[in-house]
Write a structure and sequence with these properties.
The complex is a heterodimer.
Chain A: H1 2-11, E1 18-23, H2 27-36, E2 45-50, H3 58-66, E3 71-76, H4 87-104, E4 112-116, H5 122-139, H6 144-180
Parallel strand pairs in A: 1-2, 1-3, 3-4
Chain B: E1 11-16, H1 28-36, E2 41-47, H2 53-65, E3 70-75, H3 78-91, E4 99-103, H4 105-109, H5 115-133, E5 142-145, E6 150-153, H6 157-168, E7 173-176, E8 191-192, E9 197-198, H7 199-212, E10 216-219, E11 222-230, E12 233-240, H8 255-259, E13 267-268, E14 277-278, E15 281-282, E16 294-295, H9 301-305, H10 311-316, E17 329-335, E18 337-340, E19 345-346, E20 363-365, H11 366-373, E21 393-400, H12 415-430, E22 433-438, H13 448-457, E23 461-464, E24 467-472, E25 482-488, E26 493-499, E27 501-506, E28 508-509, H14 514-520, E29 548-550, H15 560-580, E30 582-585, E31 590-592, E32 612-615, E33 620-623, H16 633-637, E34 643-645, H17 650-661
Helix pairs in contact in B: 1-5, 2-3, 5-17, 6-7, 6-15, 11-12, 12-13
The chains are: A alpha/beta, B alpha/beta.
Amino acid sequence: MSDAKEAVVGHGSWTPRIVAFFCNWCTYTAADLAGVSRLKYASNVRVIRLMCSGRVDPQFVVEAFAKGADGVLIGGCHPNDCHYVEGNYKMLRRYRLLQRMLGDMGIEADRVRLEWISAAEGEKVKWVINDMVEKVKKLGPLGMPGRFDRWDQEIEELEAQAREGEGKETVNEKQAEVAHA
Amino acid sequence: MIPKKHEPIRIGFYICHCGTNIAGMVDVEAVAKYVSALPNVAVSRTYKYMCSDPGQEMVREDILEHRLNRVVVAACSPLLHERTFRQAVEKGGINAFYFQMVNIREHNAWVHTDRAEATRKAMALARAGVQRVAFHKPLEVKRVPINPTVLILGGGIAGIHAALVLANAGKHVYLVEREPTIGGHMAKFDKTFPTLDCAACVLSPKMAAVGNHPNITLWTYSDVVKVDGFVGNFKVMVRRKARYILEDICTGCLECIEACVYKEPKFRDEFNLGFGKRKPVYISFPQAVPPVPLIDPQTCIELKTGKCKKTCVEACGDRKAIDLKQQEDLKEITVGTVIVSTGFKIFDAKRTPYYGYGIYPNVYNALEVERLVNASGPTGGEVVMRNGVTPKSVAVIHCVGSRDENTNRWCSRVCCLYSLKLAHLIHERTHAQIYNFYIDIRTPGKSMEEFYNRIAEEGMNLIRGKVADVYPDPSDGATGRLIVQAEDTLLGRILKIPVDMVVLAVGLEPHPDAADVRRKFNMSCSNEGFFLERHPKLAPVSTFTDGVFLAGCCQGPKDIPDSVAQAGAAAAEAFSLIDKGFIEQEPNTAFVREEDCSGCKSCIPLCPYTAISFLLDKRKAYINEALCKGCGTCVASCPSGSIVQNLFEDEEIFSEIEGVLAYE
């Protein structure tokens, strides 16, 4: 984390990248309503439309982080209002598990958020997005792609070290064999 | 990234200016230039209005000329124009689903203020669309036959009109109304603005037509319990409450009411808002449709104790229309489309206690006054107060429960005009001095301003000012005289006007159980609780549930002409679906790739439509495409990734994720 923050100081102009998965019937429509009502909110969120929040595969969230997202927002219909009866409950279950898993990976809880936003709640889209952008700004960049590079580098280095070590051992062994003979 | 196919992918990208709607906030030329450099993009253009004929024609021509096999349009919301562009793409000779829409208006240009940021975002979204479309597969739209029967929920003027339009066109209609009669609020009115023609004269013939129409099954005193299914094939459970009088046998002679052991009406008459009295066996009003009385189990001695002489049964005689053992009946019907026209409720004036409603007997709400001025009302059209006195001065207070931060913020649209109407009618009957207190007079609509001028010229006192307080006249407490205190904001003076009667022009609200109806039909409500239309301008009677339409005040306050117009529109929408004969279903269903399915069965209990079954011989899951509604919940949960959702395949979403993040 600290490395990433340092990297930002260099950049200076970092703004969070947030990927949002919105269900077609409630939250996506609410975002449309926010547009029609000309509400203004932070431009950091990029929305991906799905038919239902139940379609949000935890892999989508992990993939978004891996590809450089600083936060992931999931929007679905209110409990009891799902267009597909109960897809939002399925999402809620997955979300709870996912939060624990992401926590274990060192990703802060504020970086992934599940919100119920009905088709009429354009205002809620606005404040949820603004609030999330603020929170993620405070956390700073997640920088997973950079971390992957560093981890790859570390592993390569370790491998190289191990190879060197192996090389020496075999040489020693050979010498020992020779000496023995 | 791009799967190897026998032919190279050639994408056409189009970004719409939408006049200045998009181009004003997004540098469309820069986005087009950025996209033109992306892999597989053969053409990248901007155009003033992509949805116009020349815009669509440009797509078609480019497909032919540049051998495009994928198209991306960055414009408004796909909920608005996805279909338009799919058709344009199809005209160019490629499958309609080789198309992706990118929303840069509602989700971008309209909600951001920094042009550079908005342009950056548009580039990212465009890139996601371009990356995604490469994975698109050709799909076919499914056609499902539609049941031609229509359910109309609510028998006010909107429901009545919609029912007649459809029934006259030869379609079968179930009209379900929860009150014992149809007619709704309009049946309670005496005269209607701006023409001052009598409500009953225009409504009664329509009500009778509904009652007699061979294509209308009228179920009053009934409500919808449960709704299953989807457009074209809704299964609806209707509860028909026990009336204790058999509708198909009763002749409407009303002799049972005459013969009731209660010689005088004794119980609160709901239709007259408590001003009249009724017997346990009663009919709401003489012109009720169906013209069949009902027995109230709360007040009927026989139904309460079983110890009545049952003079009503005696009076009915051989007709045997009275069945005191009747039970409520659950009926299941199948309909293809639904029109919801459940109407409104009036604002409860007790929520504005400073006006004294429910405290001082001479404070009335407007609907009560409608009954008082009604020739067929409890007083025969005579305006007399609860103490039997004819008022000599009357204050009409506008905007009670409308345009008010503390109660309801919206304008109820009809109150100004009905207040003027009531002022006229009260004056006509009593020659009383009338004071109308208003915030603003709002009279939009044909002939409405002329009506206002006419009433103003009749010598009404129109005072611009919100009433602050209504309290008993300290000098004259015994007669119930009231003082209305307000600031005349045009003269800048505080007025304290003594009046005999106060009329509160209460606003319109959604029914308290609107949320239940909304859930049953999977609709949405706007913030104030009225049902939400699909689009405020372009789909004003449609909802987000296909095949469910709105009419009348359940969608928002409106007057009778607008309710009727909307009912006609809703009927036309339903009719256009029915007449087509089939529903086109978005091909976003899921299927199982059998070679990858491990047969773990974890998807099976997740499907709310029981579309997934287990093939015992193969030990694989199987999705019945006809039952699948395309939510994708099973796809997201399959541990082996063997379920694929058309239009939302994993690869498509992953490429979109990568696309939206790939910006500098």
